[in-house]
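target protein:
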Amino acid sequence: MTHQRMTFPGPVLQLFAAAEDAIAQIPPAFPLTATVAVNPFLGQAGENRAMAAARLARAGGLRVAQDRAQYAAMLADGRIAEPDLQAAAKAAGLDAADLRAAADAPQPGIRALPMVADLARDATGTDWPEFVEDRVGLWASAHFDRGQAFWPALSGGAFVSWRAFASRDLTTGLAGLTGFNAYVADLRGDAAEALSAACATLGVTAEAAPLYFHRLLMSMGGWAQYARHLGWLAERDGGREETCFALLAIAATWEAALLERWGDRIGDGWAKALESYAAPIEPSRDDLLDAALQDAADRAAERRLAETLAAPGAAGETGTDRPDLQAAFCIDVRSEILRRALEASDPGMRTLGFAGFFGLATAHRSEGSDLVEARAPVLLRPGVASRDLTGASADRALRIKRRAVRAWGRFKMAAVSAFAFVEAAGPLYAAKLLRDSTGVPHHHGPGPAPAMNLPEAERIKAAATVLRAMSLTDGFAPMILIAGHGSHVTNAPHASALQCGACGGHAGDVNARLLAALLNDPAVRAGLPAEGITVPEDTLFIAGLHDTVTDEVTLFEDHGLARHAASLRRLKATLAQASALARAERAQALPRAGTAAALLSRGHDWAELRPEWGLAGCSAFIAAPRHRSADRDLAGRAFLHDYDWRRDDGFRVLELILTAPVVVASWISLQYYGSSVAPEAFGAGNKLIHNVTGGIGVVEGNGGALRAGLPLQSVHDGDALRHEPLRLTVAVEAPREAIADILSRHDSVARLFDNGWLALYAMDEDGRMTWRHTPDGWQTVPEAA
């Protein structure tokens, strides 16, 4: 980084190290075009939840637990039972009576440590924190713009760009901070020198810097999180990126200017604040009580899941007998309802669960586009390139059409034509407005087939690897559906948050079609026996896309299949019946859904705030053979990954599951958790007042802080939370020794369990959640015993 290449004295280098630590505390936020669920507590994963609560209370004034009244209600109605409370109290070194008393006590107040801007507000009556947020937001929305604006932003890196903006922004002087333009214009050097100079003015010590820098970045809201995603991606790929450091220097420069202007009035208060920033962070008694109450709620949910899985089920072991139909779905919780409906609709149907990118981490270029989409979990860097198969003339025609649409859209929105356009062309849009407001469906046809260019040996190896990871190495049905999923919605800035998380915030159609084509490839089929896998000659893989709004499944390449006509008819009939059952179940949970048939048009209504619930309610991850969870109603709350440890040589698949799908699922679960308990920092706010800014995110109203996370309407129905904030329960059917060995080699994963962000259970030979992982080893669950 630039500030590391320059020569600075030791104390300043300590400040830079503290800056890097503070940046690591900030979760990344990905752009709207490919929203990826992120654990908002990613920076605190190395400490337990009580310590994280203490840190985030100081740095952002945040709570990381539910309101105490909610715990009291759960205790009153029995959702939290006495054994849950006792176990949580014991783990925290408290008494159950302490927890009951805390649940009935008033909610403790939380306030972040003051910044200079807070002290200046109190001294002058001008809301300087809000003012700084507004001016930074105005600059940032232009600097980070990805094509939404008509005029390009100022060039250069973030700090250079901001310095040029702030030195010309007269609003600051009008608000009372006179001389700020000259102050910024006189800055010399880069962000590192600016941060060093600001810290000298502020008197920030190496002891106070880590928490104070974290506080400054938290005050920048989603802009800091967006900048952090740039650095996070660079670090994943072995590089470095300095935008978040630049934002920290910008925030510190504002603070230094405010202190210089009003230091005579706020100097004493700032000196006391610096002492607080330098003090060691320790959880308060309230932090410990709240963490224990949340632990009790989590344990109650774990107990209910264990009871569900232990209940007698009609499905037995599938063995190696050949089913009539098979369908592989993404492990996404929304697939659970449809999988259960499919199995109920046709006794010859067996379903499987696997991460929705289907083992093919591809960088995909769509028809008529030069953009490359990462169709893979964000944890992985795509290793395969793919593209839509289309002729040159069709590709050119689509490009021309899209350019015309963009030009027309820019004309409509341009300042010189907007009012005239409304006057002249407004009546022509009446039919479109009527259609959109009544939810008349727009029909989506399948696009061209995708293809990837891999040598034959690599195609065979990839196919074998995916089939082993799916625990699908024998018992192949004559027809096997590979179903990705997507969500067709309109007028939804956060639409990509409803897509497949394993596909980088895109639909799963490309990956499903690539895998089906790979497994149907004659050369691959001929090479698989050498890998120990023989796919019957009469087995056909067919790709599909599960629309999670309508629960309908679109089949691709289903023509010219005379040999498989009977299986295809049966598959289509089963899908139709199962889709109706799934819609009927989901309609009961959606506000104003009415009948199940209404879901068919719900995603096409531009006025609909909740086209679907997404992954709200997710609370469990089960890695086991399907018969362990079949015939059990998991209410669309569980990620279901098929896994048979007896087929897993060296437990390589188990290691992959624990280090990739489980981590991705935990990010999803904790994003919903954070958007529910701390929406002011980790939620996107109210959809009704959203405005898209820069093409990357939303703000509420006309400007200010970028809002990261999920909108309020994604977790709340208007009266109460619809997502129950719980940690993810991971239940794995595998030998405990194998699980422990993997955790010993992956400390970042082990910390999620050891610090209470996730819960881990090992299932016994009867599918019961018998052993619970603790930092001290495996603990037998009394109920299971």
About this structure: The longest strand covers residues 479-486. The chain has five domains: 2-44+114-278, 49-110+284-306, 326-389+444-612, 400-437, 617-785.
